[in-house]
Design goal:
With 162 residues, this protein is α+β, with helices and mostly antiparallel strands. It contains three helices and seven strands. It has a single domain, classed as Roll (Thiol Ester Dehydrase, Chain A).
Length: 162
């Protein structure tokens, strides 16, 4: 979609992509998913709690994601959720911030990569607990919702400089 000023000057082109869960059938042979990052087989070095606000999905819409899955209770129910869910990118950012504050002394410049596997939704108002394992050159992590004891991000890997 092209957006233009009243005078006709083009301002920008907007492109939108919708991910439809479970639809598949995009064509071509199915390729296997890459192996997930393996978490250490020991207790986490630390855990950081990150509270989300009940209206966080509505505030996060300011980023431009207007998907009704995050704001409309009836739409959320129609696609299989009990209520609107938090944006995946917001959950991703919540985990990144927990790692920056808990393990990196508030220094985001140490991060060179951030990979996650979403495994369950986060609902606005949930408390996300990020379990952190510090290793040489990386931080492994898992996020779970405290209220439901549900793992919402698994096999997370935060790659660090040098």
């Amino acid at each position: 979609t092209d957006l233009s000023e009243k005078g006709g000057d083009k301002l920008c082109t907007l492109t939108s992509t919708i991910f439809a869960r479970g639809d598949g059938g995009f064509g071509g042979p199915r390729e296997g998913a890459p192996a997930p990052h393996k978490l250490p087989e020991r207790e986490p070095d630390m855990s950081v709690d990150a509270e989300t606000k009940p209206d966080q999905a509505l505030l996060y819409r300011l980023s431009g994601d207007r998907n009704p899955l995050h704001s409309d209770p009836e739409f959320a129910k129609a696609v299989g959720f009990p209520k609107p869910i938090l944006h995946g990118l917001c959950t991703y950012g919540t985990c990144c911030r927990a790692i920056i504050s808990g393990a990196l002394d508030y220094d985001p410049t140490q991060i060179t990569g951030f990979d996650v596997r979403f495994s369950a939704p986060v609902f606005p108002g949930d408390t996300v607990t990020v379990d952190i394992w510090k290793e040489k050159g990386l931080i492994s992590f898992r996020a779970r919702v405290k209220e439901r004891d549900a793992v919402v991000i698994n096999n997370g890997k935060c790659t660090l400089k040098g």
